[in-house]
Amino acid sequence: MIVLGSSGSIGLNALRLAREHNLKVEALACKSNLKVLNSQIKEFAPKLVYIDDDSLKPLVNHKFVFSKNDGIESFLKACSDEIGSTKLINAFVGFDGLTPSVLGLKLGFDLALANKESLVVGGQFLDCAKITPIDSEHFGLKFLLKDRPKIHRLIITASGGAFYNRDIAALKDASVEDALKHPNWNMGAKITIDSATMVNKLFEVIEAFWLYGCKNIDAYIETKSLIHALIEFKDGSTTAHISKPDMRLAIAHAIGLGNQRIIENLDIQALQNITFELVDLDRYRAFSLKDELLKNPKIGAIINAANDEIVAGFLSKKVKFNSISDAIFDALDKFSSFRLDSLESVVEINKKVKDYIKIRYNT
Fold first, then answer.
1. Which domain holds residue 228?
2. Residue 260 domain-assigned?
3. Which pLDDT tens digit goes with each residue over 171-202?
4. 1-deoxy-D-xylulose 5-phosphate reductoisomerase C-terminal domain: from which residue to which, for each copy (predicted)?
5. Residue 351 known to bind ligand
C-alpha cells in the first residue's frame, strides 16, 4: 500500500497494522515530519518517498524522494509506473488532499479515503463508488449496508466535542488549549477544533451523501462514542454499528483486514447509559447549515475554505472561538453565487475565500 500522511494519526495507525500483519508498504508521503519519515523509511523500506517541504528533501534518507517542487502528481504517477495498482491511503489533512484523490482514482489505485475535504469540496468530481471510507461513522454505515433493505435514513453520531458541557455564553472566551481536549478521540489539532464546533459532523454528513447517495441524513450526540452509525430501513428496522472508539478498525477494513481480530469487542454492559441527543444549534451554529448543504452540496467548497482559514487563526490565537462559525456564514453570504462546476473553480474559490477571511478577520 501507499500511505499519504504517514506521520499523522491515521497514517501511524495504518503502518501499525502493516507492521502487525506483515503488509508491504510501497510508498510514503508526509508534510514535514522528517524524523518520523526517516524512521518509517528505515522500518518499511518503501520504493518511493514524498515530503512536502522542499527544504527537507536533501535530509530524507532515501534515493527516490519527491517534494512540493516536483508535485504530488509526479509522485503518484511514479508510484503508478513503479508499483502499479495498489491500495492508496489518502490521510492528508485539508484541501491538499483533493488532488491525490482525483488523480489516484484516475491512475487506478484502490482509494482508502481519510481526507474529508476530498468529498466535502470535490465529491462531484470523484467516483464515490470506488472509494473505501476511513472514518468511524462512514465505515459504520458501509458495514451496516451489506445485504440490507432499502434505506430510509442514515444517522451518524457526534461526541459533542470539548465544549459539550460548557455554558454557551462562555464559548466566546474558550481557549485553544481547552478546545483541543477532546473527550474520546486522539486526533490532530484541526479536526479536534472541528469537533468542538461540529463542523466535522457537518462535513461527515456531506461525505455520507456522496458515498451512499442518500439525502435523509441526521446526526445525534452520543457522548461516549460507542455507537458510531445507525441506519433506518424502509421496512421499519434499524441497525447500529457499535465498537470501542479506535480508528484501527475502519483502517483495517479499508486495507483488507476485515476478517482479522483488530480490537477487542465492546462489553455490551457499557451501553447501559447511552443516550442520543439532538444537536443544539445555538451551541453548534455551523451545523444549522446541514439541510442547506445537502440541498446544494457544492457549497461545501466555500464552507471548507472559510473554516480552514479561520481555524488556523484560532489555533494561532488571533481570533476568538465564536469567530469560526461567524466566518463560515460570512463566506457563504459573500460567495454563494460563485459557480462551482469544475475542479479549477473549486481551486479558485478555495483561494478567494481564504484570502477574504484572512483580510476580514486578520488571521
1. 137-295
2. yes
3. 888 888 888 887 777 778 898 999 899 999 99
4. 131-212
5. no
